[in-house]
Design the sequence.
């Protein structure tokens, strides 16, 4: 392969793979590629969905793919035509799915899902890495090989090319090969590691074990196999090792430990690397010690194999389970390497490391406990010794107390309650005196417990005493831990009992005097008060932490005291507390009201800087307290509190908009008290608000409305002083909002109450907040973010003009648009809020186009720069909502340096030149400005759905300019095509806006020169993307309605391109594009033809139709009909349908087929299509088209002639004579089939053309009779006849008869025959006729009779015979239709037909037609035909004697039979002279099948007195072969006889049957099978009579037959018992009444035919004896089966039982006959015999007799006995239980029988008995 080929292959995209374009083979995981090609997409989709549903049952995490990869929309997604972004998103989804699928790869559902991905998304091409990563852990399975065979890795540069050798043989990847490649190709090692990290991020952790196993086994084995672990391998693995050690997954961590161990064993690493690994392992063990033993083991291996100088795992010393783990491991392994590193750190940590404090605490606790226990045990030491001991211990105890006071306190606290004896208590107090905190554990005398426990005692009195004890300690100056005292006092402030809280407060007061600072206490409060003298707002958002803590404490104290001061027994105490609180902390009124302002507004703060919750109740209480305090203030103080810089009025104003009614009520009261300050700058606002107290209390939003009204009033009040005061007041209020020290939540409340008119006043606030919203500044508070959102909300329709007048306002708004940081998740970013303000009313309210242009530019810039989907969606909705001038958008689309508007002639000419010479533009605009295609594309995307666009035509020049500059771009081909599609789509939208109804557009709106149709056509030619073609064609279609002449000049390239490309695509969108193009372009052409030259347009349209016709073979089958139907509908079917049809005929005529079968199939297929196409239109249009086709064919009637006007359709110069003939033949064939279709109902006009054409064709037949083309002209004439047939079927009846009469006189025999055939069709299908029409038709009889007679000398014999037959058939139809009402007219027809039949040398086919005509005429004429019977009947019977002719000519036979049958049916009483001959003829064996209906007619139409003697005579003279037919006649005759006739003729019939039943006796030496067949026919006939007899009449007949059987020949026994068996079968239970006399004969016959007892009784030998025995057994079976009268008495049972059972030993007839007789006759008979017995005593006898037969010497008898025993058990069922005891021994014997078959049968019998009886029998044996 050349270098260029390599480069092209490397650049090739997956969608260019040629395999995607063929359907011969399709890539498939589960199916053979050829089989997969035959399956449709829905099959694969159903397979994939089934797999996904099964996977969801295992892992619900796959649910998210149900709406993406497996959604119904994916059925139509073709990724090869999608954009880059869509494919990237699709790749991400597929990669995620395959990663999650990996653990379940071997399951069948996974294979189904992969099959769908391969079929629909071609993952083997686009996502080969992800697919192989999914399968790689199973590299040793066959499924991996199937996946590997799907991907294309032949190229040597492919990363998977090393697996190419496995594809063809289809063998799995060996582990050795995998490991070798892993350490030789480090990118593959990195691939395996990355595969694990990706799986951890997206897959449920419970299913990742297989991936971790593969990861560990592969990497460890690769490290082991490599000769030298290089630094590159270590650097590649190290990041993944660190991730594994940090990961919380146990299996991942374990795999990483293995890799670290293998690295440690394989290579010596630098000390720093070892130290790093040890640190990470230690951290993983400390963070989650789930694998303690494995982790410690890994450390040991690491330290054991590395240099001594490594720093080691110092952090591990704090691991909780370290000691126990080392203890367990030391028992089996050497742990010294770890201990050697660990112990020095442990020792050093005890003394030096401050972080070791926690580790030492346990040791210290143990030390103190041991020390204290030892100390308390020194009860016997002297006082001096104890003092010395105390001196030695004092430094140690003080050291422990200073360093580890918590551990010391824990031990001492635990011992306070454990000491029991007084001596130990004394020693414990002595030990306590050694520590500084001894006071905590001193035993208080009043409570007998320590001070520490007394402070938390359950009894309030004890807690009060303990707090007072604290007071005494403080006042006395005892040495006690100061921290303990402070914590104890503050802790008691939270007590539930007021006395305890009061005592704690007294302790705090005393502590202040002493000089302590409790919890940021008074000193801090003084500091706050002193440090904030100028700050009128106490803003928790700005205060430092200490001050916030202090304020929080004050708020909590205030909440506790004011809630308790309301009512109750302790209210007085709480009021005292409140006074004390205010006196100490809030002594000055300004301080107090600043504190109250905090409480009033803090409830709306979303932050919690004070760590306190201020609810509505506390807020209301604070407001009522403020009201009371304001009412008590002197005027001067009140004026100060209501001053401009005071927070009181703004805070109260915020409370007036609270959602809680009581808060508003309380705030209104406080405002009332504040209104006493008459000099306040807020006095005008106060007065106005106090006038509407009810509205404020009732509605929280009223304040906003009121302030809005006030703001409007201050602009309109006429009294100057009032206006000045009101304006000043509103200005002061806005100034409060602007103050940086004002809390943002209060400012938000105030800003929320004002209306939009105050935007200019709030701009500084917005400026400040935007400064704080930068990327490097701290996050805004929630309230600040809301405040900024509120201020941005002021940018609306009313304030919009401010943006044009105030540059600062516009700049701030643009800054807000560019500020993208979202401060809080539930509050939109500043950017989103600003964008949402650009609404439909806001944008036009801006007024200034420059401002609008600036905002549009910023919005489009944001769209380009932002990566946020939310911003893109918001911009899209904003742009969709606003009404924009087209010029503004055009300016944004134009390049930066290019002048925005082209107005001069020179510039206009230059833009046209640009459009004409796109190849010169390149990537840079003609005037030097670079086009930002990304920005242009995004703007064009927005324009796709833009409806509110003014002056849309302004976009047209710039869009065409962009389209021209885009043509030669050398960028991304896909992006270029996409941009081109967007441009075309925008131009289409502009056209729709300019001309919604499709009319022309004036030059003042859009100049025709600005619309470059040539450029659009160039787009079509230059692009190979179907979507681009679609957009361009739609645009051209729309442009055709606006500028028809401009499009007409480019029309043929458009349609030629459509025929060559788009019509071949099989998708709905392409079909829609063709549809739209045709609908838009064609009407414009038609309109031009109406306005101007019609011939030119006709020529253009014909060429267009030619394009469609030529392209038709390449169009998908199901698209052909809609495309052509739409084309013709648009063109006008009356005008152009015939042109299309002729072009289609020409296309078919000029095609070549390889074989005759292919040619016939193609013709049939095309003919169906042509008819379906024509049937899409009205009948009148179709008829008009047929006439046009005929006119065209008449002009082409001679091969030498040429018509120049029609050359476009069929040029004689360009086509051969054969093609011309084929063309004509197709045209006429099509017309014949079309006229025969169901769509034609009604009249046809202008049939003269078809008649003219037929004459023309007939002349051509004569002229070309001797030429090679004669056959063609004959076939063409036949087709013309077909057309004539269809036309005449549509003619009025009167006209039709006239035409037919004329055609019957034609000289050509073929024309005469065609006329008669048309007449026959009419007669067959028409049922109602008018009288005058009947008369006219009957007049045709003479013409037809003349044709029947021989004449017209030139005609050949064969042709004349056919015409005569046709005429006879026509006469037959006339007779059938009208003969019954016009019999006289039919008599000549009968005479002529009889003459033909009686003529000896007449042609047989004509004679047959004459016979059929006779049949019809006789049935019509009835009595009028009697004179002709003497001539007719002998002639007909004579024809039946000619056997040879009848058997060779079936039609002749049927004709003769039909004639005889009709005569018999019509005149049955007049054929007696001919009856015997007729009966013998119809009984002929060779013709029996054909004559069955005639026999039936004889049997049913003739009376018994005539037929019975005739049948008796025939029986005596007929042959054996005729007897069956005779009997069938008699049987049917008897079945139709009534009772009286049967009684009258019974004796005659009985005599006949006795004679017929002797047939066996008379032919006993003949063929038994033939004899049995004839005897069966006689018996069937006799049964027909028996079934009609009563019991009284049947009994003597039966006994007469019984007596008959016993006389003369023994053969009669066979006949009689066969007859008895058949009678028993038919009479069922009734036969039992007559069977009593047969019992003894039955028993005798059974004995006589038993070969074991006597000799054979019949002369015929064993065969007849076996047959007799069979009849006897079958007859007995039926008697037993239908016995309901207790026929089997004991005597009869005894008479029959023994002979029946002895038949088991009767081997008459041989082994096969014996076996068949036993299984099919004897065993069922005995089984039914047992049922008929119905007596358990007789059952026992029967069972025993059968059991005795099981001991017979012959194994066949024993086997048969077992069969009979099983039948007996199955018949008796549970009744057989009583017979079981005597049966078991016999069966046990048979289980050891010498015959193997008998043994097997015994097992079957036992098993069957178990099934029948429902109990196991094996235990009995």
Sequence:
């Amino acid at each position: 392969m050349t270098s260029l080929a390599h480069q092209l292959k490397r650049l090739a995209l997956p969608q260019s793979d040629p395999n995607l374009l063929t359907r011969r083979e399709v890539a498939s995981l589960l199916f053979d590629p050829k089989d997969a090609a035959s399956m449709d997409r829905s099959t694969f989709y159903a397979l994939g969905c089934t797999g996904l549903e099964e996977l969801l049952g295992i892992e619900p995490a796959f649910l998210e793919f149900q709406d993406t990869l497996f959604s119904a929309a994916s059925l139509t997604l073709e990724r090869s035509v999608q954009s880059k972004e869509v494919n990237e998103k699709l790749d991400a989804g597929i990669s995620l799915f395959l990663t999650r699928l990996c653990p379940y790869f071997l399951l069948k559902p996974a294979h189904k899902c992969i099959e769908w991905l391969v079929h629909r998304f071609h993952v083997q091409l686009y996502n080969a890495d992800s697919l192989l990563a999914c399968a790689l852990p199973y590299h040793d399975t066959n499924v991996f090989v199937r996946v590997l065979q799907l991907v294309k890795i032949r190229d040597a540069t492919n990363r998977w090319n090393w697996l190419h050798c496995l594809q063809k043989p289809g063998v799995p990847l060996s582990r050795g090969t995998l490991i070798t490649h892993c350490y030789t190709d480090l990118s593959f090692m990195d691939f395996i590691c990355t595969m694990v990290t990706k799986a951890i991020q997206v897959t449920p952790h419970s299913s990742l074990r297989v991936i971790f196993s593969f990861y560990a086994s592969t990497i460890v084995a690769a490290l082991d196999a490599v000769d030298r672990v290089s630094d590159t391998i270590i650097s590649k693995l190290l990041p993944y090792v660190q991730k594994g050690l940090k990961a919380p997954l146990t299996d991942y961590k374990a795999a990483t430990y293995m890799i670290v161990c293998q690295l440690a064993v394989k290579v010596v690493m630098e000390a720093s690397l070892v130290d790093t690994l040890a640190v990470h392992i230690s951290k993983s063990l400390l963070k989650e010690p789930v694998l303690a033993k494995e982790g410690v083991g890994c450390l040991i291996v690491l330290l054991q194999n590395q240099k001594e100088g490594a720093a080691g795992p110092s952090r591990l010393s704090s691991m909780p389970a370290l000691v126990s783990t080392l203890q367990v491991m030391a028992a089996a392994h050497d742990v010294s390497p770890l201990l050697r590193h660990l112990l020095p750190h442990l020792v050093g940590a005890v003394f030096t490391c401050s972080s070791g404090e926690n580790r030492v605490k346990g040791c210290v606790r143990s030390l103190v406990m041991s020390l204290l226990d030892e100390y308390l045990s020194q009860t016997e030491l002297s006082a001096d010794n104890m003092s010395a001991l105390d001196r030695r211990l004092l430094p140690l105890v003080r050291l422990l107390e200073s360093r580890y006071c918590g551990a010391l306190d824990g031990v001492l606290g635990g011992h306070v309650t454990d000491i029991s004896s007084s001596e130990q208590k004394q020693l414990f107090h002595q030990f306590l005196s050694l520590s500084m905190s001894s006071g905590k554990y001193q035993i208080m005398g009043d409570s007998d417990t320590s001070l520490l426990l007394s402070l938390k005692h359950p009894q309030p009195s004890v807690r009060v005493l303990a707090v007072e004890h604290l007071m005494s300690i403080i006042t006395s100056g005892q040495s006690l831990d100061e921290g303990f005292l402070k914590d104890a006092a503050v802790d008691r402030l939270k007590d539930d009992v007021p006395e305890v809280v009061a005592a704690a407060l007294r302790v705090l007061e005393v502590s202040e005097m002493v000089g302590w600072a409790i919890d940021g206490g008074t000193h801090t409060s003084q500091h706050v008060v002193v440090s904030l003298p100028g700050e009128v707002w106490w803003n928790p958002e700005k205060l430092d932490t200490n001050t916030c803590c202090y304020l929080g404490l004050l708020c909590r104290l205030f909440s506790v005291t004011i809630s308790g001061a309301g009512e109750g027994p302790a209210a007085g105490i709480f009021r005292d507390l409140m006074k004390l609180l205010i006196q100490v902390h809030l002594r000055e009124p300004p301080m107090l009201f600043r504190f109250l302002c905090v409480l009033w507004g803090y409830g709306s703060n979303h932050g919690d800087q004070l760590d306190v919750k201020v609810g509505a109740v506390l807020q209301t209480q604070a407001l009522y307290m403020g009201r009371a305090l304001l009412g008590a203030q002197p005027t001067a103080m009140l004026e100060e509190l209501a001053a401009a810089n005071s927070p009181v009025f703004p805070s109260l104003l915020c409370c007036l908009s609270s959602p809680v009614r009581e808060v508003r009520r309380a705030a209104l009261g406080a405002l009332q008290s504040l209104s006493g300050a008459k000099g306040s700058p807020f006095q005008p606002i106060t007065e106005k608000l106090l006038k509407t107290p009810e509205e404020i209390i009732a509605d929280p939003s009223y304040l906003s409305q009121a302030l809005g009204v006030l703001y409007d009033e201050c602009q309109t009040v006429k009294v100057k002083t009032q206006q000045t005061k009101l304006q000043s007041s509103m200005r002061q209020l806005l100034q409060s909002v602007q103050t940086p020290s004002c809390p943002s939540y209060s400012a938000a409340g105030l800003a929320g109450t004002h209306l939009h008119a105050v935007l200019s006043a709030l701009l500084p606030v917005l400026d400040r907040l935007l400064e704080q919203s930068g990327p490097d500044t701290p996050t805004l508070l929630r309230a600040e973010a809301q405040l900024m959102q509120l201020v941005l909300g002021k940018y609306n329709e009313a304030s919009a003009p401010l943006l044009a007048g105030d540059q600062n306002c516009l700049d701030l708004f643009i800054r807000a648009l560019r500020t993208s940081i979202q401060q809080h998740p539930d509050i939109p970013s500043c950017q989103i809020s600003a964008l949402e303000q650009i609404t439909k009313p806001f944008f036009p309210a801006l007024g200034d186009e420059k401002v609008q242009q600036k905002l549009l530019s910023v919005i489009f810039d944001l769209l380009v720069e932002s990566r946020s989907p939310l911003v893109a969606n918001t911009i899209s909705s904003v742009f969709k909502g606003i009404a924009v001038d087209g010029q503004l958008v055009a300016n944004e689309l134009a390049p930066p340096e290019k002048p925005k508007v082209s107005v001069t002639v020179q510039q206009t000419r230059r833009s046209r030149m640009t459009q004409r010479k796109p190849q010169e533009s390149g990537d840079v605009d003609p005037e030097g400005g670079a086009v930002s295609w990304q920005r242009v594309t995004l703007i064009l995307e927005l324009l796709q759905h833009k409806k509110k666009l003014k002056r849309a035509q302004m976009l047209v020049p710039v869009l065409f300019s962009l389209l021209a500059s885009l043509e030669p771009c050398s960028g991304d081909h896909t992006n270029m095509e996409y941009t081109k599609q967007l441009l075309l789509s925008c131009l289409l939208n502009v056209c729709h806006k300019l001309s919604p109804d499709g009319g022309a557009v004036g030059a003042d709106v859009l100049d025709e020169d600005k619309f470059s149709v040539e450029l659009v056509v160039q787009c079509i030619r230059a692009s190979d993307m179907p979507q681009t073609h679609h957009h361009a064609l739609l645009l051209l279609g729309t442009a055709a309605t606006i500028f028809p002449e401009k499009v007409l000049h480019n029309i043929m390239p458009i349609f030629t391109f459509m025929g060559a490309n788009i019509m071949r695509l099989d998708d709905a969108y392409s079909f829609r594009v063709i549809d739209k193009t045709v609908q838009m372009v064609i009407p414009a052409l038609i309109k031009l033809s109406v306005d101007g030259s019609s011939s030119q347009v006709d020529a253009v349209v014909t060429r267009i139709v030619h394009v469609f016709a030529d392209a038709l073979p390449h169009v998908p089958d199901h698209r052909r009909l809609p495309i052509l139907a739409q084309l013709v509908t648009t063109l006008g079917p009356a005008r152009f349908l015939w042109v299309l049809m002729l072009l289609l005929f020409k296309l078919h005529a000029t095609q070549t087929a390889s074989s005759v079968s292919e040619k016939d199939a193609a013709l049939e297929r095309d003919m169906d299509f042509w008819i379906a196409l024509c049937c899409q239109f009205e009948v009148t249009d179709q008829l008009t088209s047929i006439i046009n086709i005929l006119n065209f064919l008449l002009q082409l009637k001679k091969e030498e002639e040429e018509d120049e006007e029609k050359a476009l359709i069929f040029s004689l110069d360009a086509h051969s004579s054969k093609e011309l003939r084929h063309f004509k033949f197709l045209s006429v064939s099509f017309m014949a089939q079309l006229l025969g279709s169901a769509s034609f109902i009604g009249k046809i006009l202008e049939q003269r053309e078809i008649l003219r054409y037929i004459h023309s064709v007939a002349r051509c037949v004569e002229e070309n009779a001797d030429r090679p083309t004669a056959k063609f002209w004959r076939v063409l004439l036949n087709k013309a006849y077909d057309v004539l047939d269809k036309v005449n079927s549509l003619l009025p009846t009167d006209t039709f008869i006239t035409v037919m009469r004329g055609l019957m006189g034609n000289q050509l025999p073929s024309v005469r025959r065609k006329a008669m055939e048309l007449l026959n069709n009419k007669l067959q299908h028409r049922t109602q006729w008018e009288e005058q029409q009947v008369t006219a038709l009957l007049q045709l009889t003479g013409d037809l009779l003349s044709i029947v007679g021989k004449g017209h000398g030139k005609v050949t014999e064969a042709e004349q015979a056919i015409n005569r037959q046709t005429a006879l058939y026509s006469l037959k139809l006339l007779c059938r239709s009208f003969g019954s009402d016009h019999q006289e007219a039919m008599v000549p027809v009968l005479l002529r037909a009889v003459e033909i039949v009686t003529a000896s040398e007449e042609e047989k086919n004509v004679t047959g037609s004459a016979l059929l005509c006779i049949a019809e005429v006789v049935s019509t004429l009835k009595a009028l035909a009697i004179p002709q019977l003497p001539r007719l009947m002998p002639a007909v019977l004579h024809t039946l004697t000619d056997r040879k002719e009848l058997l060779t000519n079936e039609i002749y036979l049927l004709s003769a039979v039909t004639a005889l049958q009709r005569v018999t049916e019509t005149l049955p009483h007049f054929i007696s002279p001919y009856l015997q001959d007729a009966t013998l003829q119809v009984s002929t064996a060779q013709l029996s099948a054909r004559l069955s209906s005639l026999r039936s007619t004889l049997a049913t139409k003739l009376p018994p007195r005539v037929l019975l003697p005739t049948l008796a005579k025939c029986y005596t003279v007929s042959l054996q072969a005729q007897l069956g037919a005779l009997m069938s006649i008699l049987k049917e005759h008897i079945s139709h006889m009534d009772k009286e006739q049967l009684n009258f003729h019974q004796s005659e019939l009985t005599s006949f049957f006795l004679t017929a039943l002797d047939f066996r006796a008379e032919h006993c030496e003949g063929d038994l099978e033939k004899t049995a067949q004839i005897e069966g026919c006689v018996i069937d006939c006799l049964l027909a009579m028996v079934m009609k007899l009563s019991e009284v009449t049947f009994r003597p007949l039966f006994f007469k037959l019984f007596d008959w059987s016993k006389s003369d020949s023994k053969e009669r026994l066979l006949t009689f018992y066969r007859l008895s068996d058949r009678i028993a079968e038919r009479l069922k239970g009734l036969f039992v009444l007559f069977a009593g006399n047969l019992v003894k004969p039955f028993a005798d016959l059974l004995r006589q035919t038993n070969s074991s007892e006597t000799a054979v009784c019949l002369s015929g030998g064993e065969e007849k004896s076996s047959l007799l025995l069979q009849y006897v057994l079958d007859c007995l079976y039926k008697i037993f089966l239908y016995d309901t009268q207790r026929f089997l008495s004991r005597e009869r049972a005894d008479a029959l039982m023994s002979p029946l059972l002895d038949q088991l030993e009767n081997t008459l007839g041989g082994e096969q006959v014996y076996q068949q007789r036993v299984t099919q006759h004897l065993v069922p008979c005995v089984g039914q015999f047992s049922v008929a017995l119905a007596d358990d005593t007789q059952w026992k006898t029967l069972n025993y007799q059968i059991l005795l037969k099981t001991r017979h010497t012959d194994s066949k008898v024993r086997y048969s006995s077992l069969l009979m025993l099983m039948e007996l058990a199955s018949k008796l069922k549970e009744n057989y239980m009583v017979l079981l005891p005597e049966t078991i021994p016999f069966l046990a014997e048979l289980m050891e029988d010498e015959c193997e078959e008998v043994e097997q049968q015994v097992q079957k019998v036992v098993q069957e008995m178990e099934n029948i009886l429902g109990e196991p029998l094996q235990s009995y044996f």
Q: What stands out?
A: Residues 1473-1569 form one domain. The beta strands are 443-444, 449-450, 884-885, 949-950. The first strand starts at residue 443 and ends at 444.
